[in-house]
Amino acid sequence: MPPKAPPPRPPPPNAPPSGKPQINAAPAEPLTMQLPSSMKRLPARLMISAVEGWGKTTLAAMSPDPVFLLTGGETGLITLAQANRVPDVPFFNTSTFEESLAVVQQLLDSDHDRKTLTIDATGGLERQVNEYVVNRYFDGDWGEKGFAGYGRGHEVSVTQWLEFQEKLDELRQKRNMLIILLSHSKIKTYKNPIGEDFDRFISDLNEKNIGSAAYKWCDDVLFGQFLTVVDKDSPKSKKGKGIGGAKRVLYCERRDAFDAKNRRGMPPALSMPEDHNQVWSAIGEYYKC
C-alpha cells in the first residue's frame, strides 16, 4: 500500500490554470509604504547551540521570567534546579508533537507572567515532528517505502515545523515573549568548494530540512564553546595537545569552525561570567524589548 500523502492545499479562488502563471498588473488595493521604525518591536528569536556541558540550559534559565518546554526526555533543567544551580523554573514536559503544540497554544490563550519560552532541546522537538509525520502520513514506516523514500518524510516534516514556527511568532506578537531554541552541537566535515575540506561544529538538527528552516527563522544564532589553547610543542602528539578549556565563550558571528549570526551589532565573541547567576548579564542588554 503506498504511503498516505498529506492532503493537497486547495488553489486560491480564480487561480490560473496549471502551467500558465499570470501576474495581476496591480493589487486590488494600493499597498502602503512603511518604515521599519514604525513597526512594533518584537522580542527576539534566538538559537543557542553549544557543546555538551557548556551551560546553555543555565543561560536560558536565567533569562527574564522563563518557562521551559522540555522534549525528548531532557532533564538538565530539573537536575540543575535540584542542585540550586538555577532558579525553580516552571516547565512543561512533552513526549509528542501534539503535546508541544498544545503547550504553545496554552501559553497563547491563558493569562500568565512568563516572558521567555525556551525549547530544550530543539532536536527532541524535531524528533516529535518526524514521529508525528511518519505515523500520520506513512503508516509508521520509517523505511524507503515510507518516511525515508525520496526525502518525502522530511519535506512533510518541514511543513509541520513551519506551522509550529508561526505559532511561536504568535507568542512573540500576542504575549511579547522571547523565544529561545536550545540545540546540541555535533562535528561534521564541511565540503569546501574552494579549498581543503575541514571539520566544523553544526547544530544536530537536520541541516537540509528543519535545521535550515530554524536557522533562517531565528534572528540570532549563538554558539557556545570552551576556549581552547593548543600546546603545539607537545612531544606526545603530532597534532598538538589541547590545554585549558575552563573559560566559556559565546560566539556571535560565523567562522569556518562554527555557525553563528546576529542582527544586534553584537561583538564576534562574548566571555561568559564564571558565576552562573550572572550569565544572562553577558547578553541581556541585547535582548531588551
| Strand element count | 9
The sequence of SSEs as H and E is EHEHEHEHHEEHEEE
Sequence stretches where pLDDT stays below 50 over 5 or more residues:
none
Q: Output the CATH class name of the domain at 41-223.
A: Alpha Beta
CATH architecture of the domain at 41-223: 3-Layer(aba) Sandwich
Instruction: Briefly note the structural class of the backbone.
Output: alpha/beta
Biggest pleated sheet: 9 strands, mixed
**What is the terminal separation in angstroms?**
52 Å
Mean pLDDT: 89
CATH topology of the domain at 41-223: Rossmann fold
Number of helices: 6
Radius of gyration: 22 Å
Question: What portion of the residues fall into strands of 2 or more residues?
Answer: 15-25%
What form results from the Cα inertia axes?
globular
**Share of helix, binned:** 25-40%
Descriptive key words:
289 residues, alpha/beta, Rossmann fold, nine-stranded mixed beta sheet, 9 strands, globular
Structure description:
This protein has 289 residues and is of the alpha/beta class. The protein has a domain of 183 residues: Rossmann fold. Strands 1, 2, 3, 4, 5, 6, 7, 8 and 9 form a nine-stranded mixed β-sheet that branches. The mean pLDDT is 89.
Brief synopsis:
The protein is of the alpha/beta class. The chain is built from six helices and nine strands.
Write the layout of secondary structure elements.
Blueprint: E1 45-50, H1 56-61, E2 66-71, H2 76-82, E3 91-94, H3 97-109, E4 116-120, H4 122-137, H5 152-175, E5 178-190, E6 198-203, H6 210-217, E7 220-231, E8 241-251, E9 269-271
Parallel strand pairs: 1-5, 1-7, 2-3, 2-4, 4-5
Antiparallel strand pairs: 5-6, 7-8, 8-9
Helix pairs in contact: 3-5, 4-5, 5-6
